[in-house]
Amino acid sequence: MKRPADHGMTLLEVVIALSILLMGVGFILQTDAVSHRYLNKAEVRQQMLFYAAGILEATIEGESPTAFPPFDSFQADVTTTSQANPYLERVEVKVYRKNSPTNPEPVRLYTYRVKK
């Protein structure tokens, strides 16, 4: 009986196969990490937008809101400016993260209300 010349994979072939497998797994893990980072950034921005809308509405109603979790990591700056119109004033709310004021970008909402 003749034996086949190739009984299995050589050590070099095993090393090459494992390195190709590990490169593929590495790329998958890297894309997963990037997608989670962008998802988290979008969620934080949406929370900032909801918080700014609540602060803006409370300011228009004349109340002073307090921050509860998950909004206690945000800072809100409320500014009121007079306009050329003698009956209206502009109310602006700027919300940003306390520990990272530029990541994500601050959210700004504004509206007009009748002067008191």
Q: Characteristics of this structure?
A:
116 residues; alpha+beta; 3-stranded antiparallel beta sheet; 1 helix; 3 strands
List the helices and strands and how they pair.
Elements: H1 11-61, E1 74-82, E2 88-97, E3 107-114
Antiparallel strand pairs: 1-2, 2-3
Mean pLDDT metric: 87
- Strands, total number: 3
Low-pLDDT windows of residues: none
Largest beta sheet: strand ordering = 1-2-3
Describe the protein in words:
With 116 residues, this protein is an alpha+beta fold. The chain has one helix at 11-61, and strands at residues 74-82, 88-97, 107-114. Strands 1-2-3 form a 3-stranded antiparallel beta sheet. A hairpin with a 5-residue loop joins strand 1 and strand 2. The longest helix is centred in the first third of the chain and has 51 residues, at 11-61. The chain starts with 10 loop residues before the first helix and ends with a strand.
